[in-house]
Amino acid sequence: MNVTDDLRYVYAVCRPPTAPLHADLTGVAGVPPRQLVHEGLVAVVSPVPERDFAHDALRAHLEDLDWLAATARAHQSVVAALATVTCPLPLRLATVFRDDSGVRAMLEEESERLRRILDRIDGHVEWGVKVWLVGGAPEDPAPGTEPPAARPSRAPESGRDYLRRRRAGNAAREESAARAEVFTRRLHGDLTRYAADARLHPVQSGPLADAGSGRNILNAAYLVPRSRSEEFLELVGRAEGTRPGLRVEVTGPWAAYSFTDGPEAGGVP
């Protein structure tokens, strides 16, 4: 790949790492990342082909789920490797610049903000916690609509009995949802005491949620000092299994993706 003709893909900004990245590490387009240093800040970059990352081409690629997934995996692999040797500020997926000069200009113009964020996340990692409401009472079919094999060998259910049963089912579901909300609020409050910051993301639904997981009722990220991560995980572990019908899921540690506001993605500035 001719680095003088291609664009510059930026994975993250950090301070000088304490150790080199693994020699076999590759990033987007299968190219090893390198460090571009400017006044104490380091941008971790690699060349990418203009045919894929120029503005119009990138917009088209972002509709290609296979291409997007492969690019995201490569991006994450570089950021994860960086997190083992420094505390990176990850930039958004597909943040590209025309050349090294464009990257340096970004570091210069954004210097104050970048340093402020790096100071805030230094020594911290991100943990994700989700709570899922699983099971629950199924919806009752309308009277007389059950398949023949499922109909009991007794007198047909009256409309009054059907409505009474429906009200009881709705009340049980409402009570279950209310208990789940109390549990979620308490858990979030407890976890924030171990975190320097927290973010409540929109709950997952539709294609983002596994149909077998249940209904997502908490989707949160926590910026936790590395020194308190063990305590944080112990608290999550104690919460797991304490409420029937609720499942707690923890992921991480990650670089602080939810606690940065890097340059916008979307092609060459």
From TrEMBL:
Record bears the keyword Heme: no
Location of the protein in the cell: Gas vesicle
Pfam families attached to this UniProt entry: GvpL_GvpF
Protein family per UniProt: Belongs to the gas vesicle GvpF/GvpL family.
Listed name of the protein: Gas vesicle protein
Keywords: Gas vesicle
Stretches the record annotates as Disordered: 138-161
Biased composition (Pro residues): 140-150
InterPro entries hit by this protein: GvpL/GvpF
Gene source species: Streptomyces lasiicapitis
Recorded superkingdom: Bacteria
Transcription found in the keyword field: no
